[in-house]
Write the structure tokens for this entry.
Amino acid sequence: MTDTPPRKLRYAMVGGGRDAFIGAVHRKAMALDGQIELVAGALSSSPGKARASGRDLGLADDRNHGDWQALLADELKRPKGERIDFVSIVTPNHVHFPVAQAFAEAGFHVVCDKPLVHTREQADALVATVAKKGTVFGVTYNYTGYPMVRQAREMVRSGLIGEVRKVVVEYNQGWLASHVEGSGGNKQADWRTDPARSGAAGAIGDIGSHAENLVATVTGLRVESLCADLGALVPGRMLDDDGSLLLRFEGGARGVLIASQINTGLENDLRLRVSGTLGTLEWHQEQPSRLVHLPHDGPLQVLTRGAPWLCESAKRASRLPAGHPEGFIEAFANVYAGVAADIRARLEGRTADPLAADYPRVEDGARGVRFIERTVASAKSELKWTPW
Amino acid sequence: MTDTPPRKLRYAMVGGGRDAFIGAVHRKAMALDGQIELVAGALSSSPGKARASGRDLGLADDRNHGDWQALLADELKRPKGERIDFVSIVTPNHVHFPVAQAFAEAGFHVVCDKPLVHTREQADALVATVAKKGTVFGVTYNYTGYPMVRQAREMVRSGLIGEVRKVVVEYNQGWLASHVEGSGGNKQADWRTDPARSGAAGAIGDIGSHAENLVATVTGLRVESLCADLGALVPGRMLDDDGSLLLRFEGGARGVLIASQINTGLENDLRLRVSGTLGTLEWHQEQPSRLVHLPHDGPLQVLTRGAPWLCESAKRASRLPAGHPEGFIEAFANVYAGVAADIRARLEGRTADPLAADYPRVEDGARGVRFIERTVASAKSELKWTPW
Amino acid sequence: MTDTPPRKLRYAMVGGGRDAFIGAVHRKAMALDGQIELVAGALSSSPGKARASGRDLGLADDRNHGDWQALLADELKRPKGERIDFVSIVTPNHVHFPVAQAFAEAGFHVVCDKPLVHTREQADALVATVAKKGTVFGVTYNYTGYPMVRQAREMVRSGLIGEVRKVVVEYNQGWLASHVEGSGGNKQADWRTDPARSGAAGAIGDIGSHAENLVATVTGLRVESLCADLGALVPGRMLDDDGSLLLRFEGGARGVLIASQINTGLENDLRLRVSGTLGTLEWHQEQPSRLVHLPHDGPLQVLTRGAPWLCESAKRASRLPAGHPEGFIEAFANVYAGVAADIRARLEGRTADPLAADYPRVEDGARGVRFIERTVASAKSELKWTPW
Amino acid sequence: MTDTPPRKLRYAMVGGGRDAFIGAVHRKAMALDGQIELVAGALSSSPGKARASGRDLGLADDRNHGDWQALLADELKRPKGERIDFVSIVTPNHVHFPVAQAFAEAGFHVVCDKPLVHTREQADALVATVAKKGTVFGVTYNYTGYPMVRQAREMVRSGLIGEVRKVVVEYNQGWLASHVEGSGGNKQADWRTDPARSGAAGAIGDIGSHAENLVATVTGLRVESLCADLGALVPGRMLDDDGSLLLRFEGGARGVLIASQINTGLENDLRLRVSGTLGTLEWHQEQPSRLVHLPHDGPLQVLTRGAPWLCESAKRASRLPAGHPEGFIEAFANVYAGVAADIRARLEGRTADPLAADYPRVEDGARGVRFIERTVASAKSELKWTPW
């Protein structure tokens, strides 16, 4: 450990003002470790609310902007030593693309919420921009920040459960089980069920994309073709609130993906089961510190966060000893820690340690957009299999 | 309670000799309550083994037969007061039809294991025979004998969880995760993976049929169309060992059914989740005495077997106080108790109490055969939806 | 396997008539495997009810007695080939001693419910009689019949968890949380809270004795001294309904034993935790097929009934494959199977296989009586430690 | 919400430098909500390490002190608008008293880790000082910061489970199951097993005190007398590593408290069961978002953090929607949030909202010291009951 510790990274936030839910989570995640600080923002699409939100958060007046264009212009005018290190985009989905594209094009590092953008073309454009600029671009698929998801990834990738044959992933919630949108009382419900702001998909876009990313992260499998049934089961809903997919992966593994927001009583029931020739892994987001390993030839094991026998990647993602629960915010913080490690490496002119710079990237976001697009296409098709 | 208790019912068993697994379970289930006794049998397709098995079980020589034809002929010759009350058929699947049809045609009550028969035509013939003869015909979909499955049925049918929107049923096992058949060491694996004896389907026939029946029993929903992906994922296997289906039910509910025998490390993981507009129910066979109820508007509840607030049907299916675990054999015994109640009612010239005569019937078995047939058809189809 | 299978063992039951709870459980347990049959009885202390109960169960009139003395006299008159092989005593506690002593003295094998008798003197007398006669005497500490309890015993005894340091056993129920006795509506509550019929202890005698036996069975540890706090927490109750003990074992291990019947909402919450220098074991009766092993140096393991890696003793105590729940009746049946194996060995003039003749004996019952006596003495003492 | 948000509170930390465990947790907890900032410190008893640690954390040189005396002197010299709002003391136990006393005496608000001090006399002195100065003094019994502990408190205090009859609290860990102290490799183990630094008790002081506080917080019961067995079960250990207590509460309830650090394989197993005449509550720290309620007359309920039907106190202690796991740090942060609310109220010249200023106080800390003292006295006594 050195006596001259690295300075805190500085960020600006776009979106996440008063009444928003996820922006505050991002801020808490970044605050947790005392390594990242908020210095600027354009916290709402409404200029008045944007500035009021910025004042709540203690932003200096000259860095508290009414819209993201002003934020970007201002940052570009500032000297390097004062400028933000990255921007965090936590707006509703339809705003992701213009903001992300503009900041990336201007050479800023970016963190953007998921699903990344609305269309495959936007995704491709963003990937191209990031490649051209060589910047850092993280996507907050926050569930992959859980230590035991990283442990699962290590166990699958290293061959511990053999060749993967079957994957079942579910993401079930109940909060959209009745027609809560449009009443003005539920901002989340309003925009998430509105195609103009949410995109072509509802539940599949919001939570199905997390499920897709979880499978891809843990298994590395690539979808070859899929068969989707999407439904808007609550009368009057404009986007799907329930989806089920059959998956075929390259190499022959099969899968099922379920994403539903009409499962009354369920909270945030994201769960994954991966069966290989040598064993099965099970993980459940609501008990994130446990990873169940069922070997074909021995007793069930429960690996827990904080244990000395976990892989290095899981260990690094953990802050507390075993038995001291960590949760959602820590997982989120791990995604940001990965981004921060990558940015710091660039600031210091070195290549980041891959174990440290462990975060979902723009390509993961683009694959997620592709997944949504292919799912919607399949749902409309009379043929069983829609190729990837 | 009367001072002249009813005599024990007498049964013959076809199949279930030495080395067989499920026959012994049927016998234990029937022995449990001391109300049913084994008096005759043709316990194997091999006459020598049949008779040796009968001697193991204490059968009298003149009722211990080398084949089922001899058993049937002998029973028909006996006076009514000595004759069996019913036959229990626990052979491999391909033998079900001729035996069941012959005994039913001869006017005997029958209990037959599932899947009932190989083809829709056989199923229709059997339904017709039973209807013509007016006899009792039970099918041992044993999982519906669990008290908490009956509680779930009552809660769904009475509207407690509102209109059903989504059903997810899984039946996962790991015992066929490697190529164990054909070695001679695993009789179960041998016949269950052999199309000649098992029928057109493997996992879908063996355990998928239980899953289908569980959904039908609990929800009463009727499948409108289905979309299946079946795979023989273990190299060299002749029948499917992994299947996943999307389901659409009449009335608009959606469903997913998974049946897989290659989930390494999983034991007998049958689980059901039914989400309605007012709440969700979850049941897991490996913890059969618990039924989780997640109301939309209140805390999660866990109903347990033996509690005074359960429905009458669940109470009747229970033998011990709460907290004293009951299991698979008791559930099996409940199916037989239902059959026995129906037979006793006929012996006494009355209509059975529906709460007592609660068991899966030949029509349930026929619907299960239909399910297998439609699933296999869908798996071969390039179209997404195969109508029921 | 031989072609001349052993005949069924014959038993008489004392107690267990109409309205009794536990007698029916014993009968189901004995019926389960088809190896033991009821042939005689004196099923109630009321002669009329005794005979009516016998008729319910199909007893022949000449073996259906109004009191146990008549049963004993009749059995002694019968030729050996017709006589019972053993008697099963399932009366309230205060009747255990005279019946057990009389049958044992007459040379009969005996199975008796727990707690064995009321006083240490009675227990010593019974042990002496059994030793003198050389007969089989089983005590239905049924929880030790669970396969995973036997697995725990093997793991502790073989040193897998090292030297035992701490034992925590709890047995919590809620059924006596209000003053249900004396109303006539709850026969169990009536006699179990009545010192004349239940003995010097209530909860400690009824369920504390199971807890003591579970610890002794699994660990083999001997109590050196104990410190008890017993309370009758429900106003008006005549015996303890809640007890907690500190235990010191020979060799230095420490323990806590809790037995309480006023834990509202709890069902039959018997649980054991044994910590040794190398690992900890946890078992919970309400999920009896799971044994949790927490090694000091590796991930938590859950061993499940039916797995091929269990010890021989656990395997023999199992009837179904893993994942097919077994329960209370099977555990009970295992105690009887152990007794039966011992009786059969004697019938055949050989020493029983210890793995087969695995059941709690009269000495275990006597130690249980000692435990109750010492606990009651400690509860009255002002000194902390009461020696064993 | 106002447009002029309150400024962040400023704090200094004493202890918690490089290599310390709990100091970092305190800092993360305070950072989480962006309302409290570290501005000064004396982060180690070693001046060099103190200053290096302060630099790691970005402290300005003039507020980064080599010892706490210098910190205190410096703060007293600063103008009010720059001075710290409170000090957070996270040193080993033996340092708590002088630091806390000095800062309290100087009129500073204080947060101090538990157990508060070594002796009853110290505790009384501290209580007197705080009373005299009228300052805020929080003790980080962090487990009471969990939302579901607050929900349990509300349910017990409001009479929902009736009159409390039995309390069982356990706090089990395994990290001291071998003789890890003295090797230099485990700083925690070193000081916690050293009487000079840890105090008169080991496990009872470190974790038993949490258990005592949990019971007192949830139930409000007062211990009348207790009976303790303490052991140093690891050879060579100087303080207890395993303790078990029988408790009698004023009013007649009984209890058991277990605190052990030699339970191999257990992580941080703090669990509470409270049985009243109408129901039982169970809470387990390793699944902190669940509170199990077992009513005497209805099905088991699982209340989960984030649900709309929780009490106001539980709701305020929650940051994320249900199903998005919160953990240890959030609970810790809630204690600090309570302290902060009280300090802010004083800054604004008003009485704090009791729902906001919800945190363990100096009197709770003093009661914890009393508990340790009485427990140690009981452990040495030959009499069963040691009065409080």
